[in-house]
Amino acid sequence: MRVLNKLTKYKSIYGFIIILILWYILHKGIDSSIVPSPYETIIAFINALINGSLLLHLLVSLLRIVSAVSIAMIIGIPMGLWMGSNSRADAIISPVTYLLYPIPKIAFLPVFMLLFGLGNLSKIVLIITIIFFQVLLATRDGVKEIPTNLIYSVKSLGLNHWQTYLHLVIPSTLPKIISALRISVGISISVLFFAENFATTYGIGYYIMNSWAIVQYKEMFAGILGLSLMSYLIFKIIDLIEGKVCAWMFVGK
Question: Rounded to the nearest 5 degrees, what angle is found at the Cα of 153, between the Cα atoms of 150 and 156?
Fold first, then answer.
C-alpha cells in the first residue's frame, strides 16, 4: 500500500507500469508473435529511432498536428471571443456552425485531397476543421458564462474595451479553451492516423499500417509506442501551458 501511495505521486510512472503489466499479461495470454513482449517492442522502438526509420514518420505527424493546432487556435479564439461578446455575430455564425460541427470531418478527406493535393496540406486542413469548431464554441461559451456582475465591476474600475478583454474575458475563457483543445487533439491524432493511410509514404499512421501489411509486428508495435509517446508529449505540453496561463486554478492544490 505504501508503494502504491508513492507511485500515485508520480502519475506518469504509475500509468506506464500498469500498461506494461497489462501488456505483458496480454503477450503471455495470446502467446503469439502478433503481440510481441514489451521488452521486444522497446528494443525495436529504440533501434527504429536510431536508424531513423521511425523518427522521420513521427516528426512528419507531429508537424501536421502542431501546424493544424496553431492555425485553428489563431482563427478560432478571436472568432469565438467576437461571437461571445456580440449577439448579432453569434446569431449569424452559430446556425452555420451547428450544421457543420456534427458532421464527421473525416468524410471530407477525399474532397480536401482533391482540392489541396495528396501531401501535407490536405491532412492539415482536415485537422484544422476538427479543432476549429471545438475551440470556437468553447471560446464563445466561455465568454457567455462570465457573470454579468463581474463585467460591471470591471467597467466600474474604468477599464476600457481592450483592457476588459485582457484582464477578464480572456482569462475567464482560457480554461474552457484548453479543455476543448485537449479533447480536439485526441480526436485529431486518431483522424490523422486514418488520413496517413491514403496517398502518403510519411507519417506514423503509414508506418504502423505498412509494418502490419508486411507482417513486421515488432515494428508495428514500435510505431504504436511512438504514437503513444508523441500523444503523451503533446498532452503534457498542453498541461504545462495550462499551468502557466491558468495558474490561479492550481493555487492551494
Answer: 155
Question: Minimal CA–CA distance to 181: which of 120, 242, 124?
Answer: 242
Cα 205 to chain centroid distance, Å, stands at: 15
Burial class (CB in 10 A: 0-12, 13-18, 19+), 220: buried
- Using left for φ > 0, alpha for ψ between -120 and 50, and beta otherwise, residue 139 falls in alpha
Question: CA–CA separation, 226 vs 203, rounded Å?
Answer: 11
Question: Whats the size of the chain, residue-wise?
Answer: 253
Using one digit for the tens of pLDDT, what is the confidence trace for 73-89? 999 999 999 998 888 99
Show the CA angle centred on residue 41, arms to residues 31 and 13, nearest 5°. 105
Cα–Cα distance list, 31 to 18, 26, 27, 188 (Å): 20, 8, 6, 33
Q: pLDDT tens across 118-166, in order? A: 888 989 999 999 889 989 999 999 888 888 888 778 777 777 778 888 8
Domains of the chain: 1-31 (no CATH), 34-247 (1.10.3720.10)
